[in-house]
């Protein structure tokens, strides 16, 4: 469930990049979940044509996904997709990724070079492109040959920075079917998938097709200008719906547009954060070893439970340092010591004990605690207990209830690095 602050931030990003109408439709989806076209029209009070155009913009830029629930296709309608109920859902995480485009560009350019970075920039700017559109754009901007563009695109796909787009309107099975399959295969309690996760799991193509790109040399030879045909003719002409009866191998290419793979890019940023954290806490040698380990175990990372890996400890350490840095800049050194003490102790502490532990005067400590509490960084609970409850075996329990309890209350960080650290990593 997206928080109110998260919705406001996402709507702000969409407004700045696509305007008020698109943002209005996006906000409607974020606040209400999956909706049909008619439901969006009712809630936004926009015309169906305007809503449809806004949805196309969101889908083109990977901020929304259309899908059909299997339970809505039943009886006589089962064999007639035209009568199925298409719904739309906003992809909150992908909206946040739009702030990180410069970081993604930096990752790609440093690893694969400037020409790959420029080609990747086109995918970030336009959301989804056919191979023909990628070639046309590269030829218009840099007068590059089709051979060079194909090679660069192949490098991006091989590195998993670019992927084949998900299916436009996947048929999503009911959640009960997935739950039963997982229950039979494992006795471990598995948290049910959200609707967004279920939709994207069905929509994404297989790994082989998702990262499969084979240049077509014959078509390159047919082109005599800088603006050439795409590696596969069918890819560039998929919307014209002709020449699709060629051979089976080309049929799969017909349906494939290309887009940036945020999942892999975020993985690289997560690895960089972990390596930088280890470098600061230990030394360059330890960071080099961790970097090599992460690169070697990249293929197996998804199969390992994050909760049982070292990623959690490293990320928690980075989170702690990020919060402490914010507290230090906002409230000063005394507040920093208080926050660090409470965060690391992981338990409730009385004001007097806090003052003693940080070697500060009680008056200054109380003043700082009150200021942090006012700004939402601490939650203060004061209980006036009857005298008979203050003695006996429950004394320690009631004493703890009088203490100041630490609460990480800030729901939105100004820096996107902090958002990634707490939301995505």
Please provide a brief summary of the model.
This protein is α+β, with helices and mostly antiparallel strands and 425 residues long.
- As for the number of domains, it is 3
End-to-end Cα distance, whole Å, is: 17 Å
User: How much beta, percentage-wise?
Assistant: 5-15%
> What count of helical segments does DSSP give?
23
Strand order of the largest sheet: 1-3-2-5
Number of strands: 8
Structural class of the helices, strands and pairings? alpha+beta
Major sheet attributes: 4 strands, mixed
Helix content: 55-70%
Mean pLDDT, all residues: 75
Provide structural commentary.
59% of the residues lie in helices and 6% in strands. With 425 residues, it is of the alpha+beta class. It folds into 3 domains: 4-96, Orthogonal Bundle (Arc Repressor Mutant, subunit A); 98-166 and 204-260, no CATH class; 338-424, Arc Repressor Mutant, subunit A (Orthogonal Bundle). The strands form 3 sheets. A 4-stranded mixed sheet has the order 1-3-2-5. The longest helix is centred in the C-terminal third of the chain and has 22 residues, at 310-331. The protein is globular. DNA-dependent RNA polymerase catalyzes the transcription of DNA into RNA using the four ribonucleoside triphosphates as substrates. Specific core component of RNA polymerase III which synthesizes small RNAs, such as 5S rRNA and tRNAs.
């Amino acid at each position: 469930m997206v928080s109110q602050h998260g919705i406001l931030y996402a709507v702000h990003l969409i407004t700045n990049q696509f305007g008020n109408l698109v943002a209005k439709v996006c906000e409607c989806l974020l606040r209400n979940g999956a909706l049909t076209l008619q439901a969006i029209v009712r809630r936004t009070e926009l015309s169906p044509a305007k809503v449809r155009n806004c949805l196309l913009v969101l889908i083109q830029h990977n901020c929304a996904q259309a899908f059909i629930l299997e339970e809505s296709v039943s009886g006589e309608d089962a064999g007639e997709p035209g009568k199925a109920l298409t719904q739309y859902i906003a992809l909150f995480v992908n909206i946040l990724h739009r702030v990180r485009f410069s970081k993604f560009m930096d990752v790609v350019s440093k690893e694969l070079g400037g020409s790959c970075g420029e080609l990747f920039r086109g995918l970030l700017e336009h959301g989804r492109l056919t191979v023909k559109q990628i070639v046309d754009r590269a030829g218009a901007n840099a007068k590059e040959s089709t051979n060079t563009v194909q090679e660069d695109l192949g490098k991006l796909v091989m590195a998993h920075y670019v992927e084949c787009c998900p299916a436009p309107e996947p048929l999503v099975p009911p959640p009960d079917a997935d739950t039963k399959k997982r229950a039979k295969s494992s006795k471990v309690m598995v948290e049910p998938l959200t609707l967004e996760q279920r939709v994207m799991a069905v929509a994404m193509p297989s790994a082989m097709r998702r990262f499969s790109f084979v240049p077509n040399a014959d078509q390159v030879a047919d082109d005599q200008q800088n603006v050439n045909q795409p590696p596969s003719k069918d890819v560039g002409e998929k919307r014209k719906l002709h020449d699709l009866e060629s051979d089976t191998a080309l049929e799969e290419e017909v349906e494939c547009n290309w887009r940036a793979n945020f999942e892999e890019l975020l993985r690289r940023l997560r690895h960089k954060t972990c390596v930088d954290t280890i470098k600061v806490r230990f030394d360059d040698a330890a960071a080099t070893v961790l970097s090599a380990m992460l690169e070697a175990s990249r293929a197996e990372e998804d199969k390992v439970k994050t909760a049982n890996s070292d990623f959690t400890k490293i990320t928690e350490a980075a989170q702690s340092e990020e919060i402490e840095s914010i507290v230090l800049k906002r409230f000063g050194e005394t507040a920093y010591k208080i926050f660090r003490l409470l965060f690391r102790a992981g338990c409730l502490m009385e004001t007097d004990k806090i003052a003693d532990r940080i070697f500060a005067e009680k008056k200054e400590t109380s003043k700082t605690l009150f200021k942090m509490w006012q700004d939402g960084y601490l939650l203060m609970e004061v209980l006036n207990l009857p005298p008979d409850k203050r003695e006996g075996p429950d004394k320690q329990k009631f004493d703890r209830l009088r203490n100041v309890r630490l609460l990480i209350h800030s729901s939105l960080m100004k820096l996107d690095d902090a958002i990634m650290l707490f939301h995505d990593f």
